[in-house]
Amino acid sequence: MTLPTATALVCLMIAARLLLFARGGAVHRPRAGLFAYLLAVAAGSVGVFELFGLDSRWPQLVLHLTLLLALLAVRGNVVELFRTTDNRQSWLAILLRKEKWI
């Protein structure tokens, strides 16, 4: 698998996950919805552009800016990106917190 193909698949999975989000009984937040929509469009664009060999620099810039904003919001603490709001923790947060690997 080539790097552009892998990038396309990852971005298409990001877009699909954002599009398949179900808020359940949560309150609708228009700004968050708009942000998620723009992020899904950017990720989907990267995926489609990469698959067809087109220039995907602008959509990638949007994705990189989103990551930058997320990291700024948690002051660079990567583990905080994967913290959940309830008492259970995500498997990735648990893995990142693990101090001893062997």
UniProtKB/TrEMBL annotation:
InterPro entries: Phage_holin_3_7. The chain crosses the membrane at residues 6-22, 34-52, 58-78. It comes from the Bacteria. Keywords: Membrane, Transmembrane, Transmembrane helix. It holds the Pfam family Phage_holin_3_7. This is Phage holin family protein.
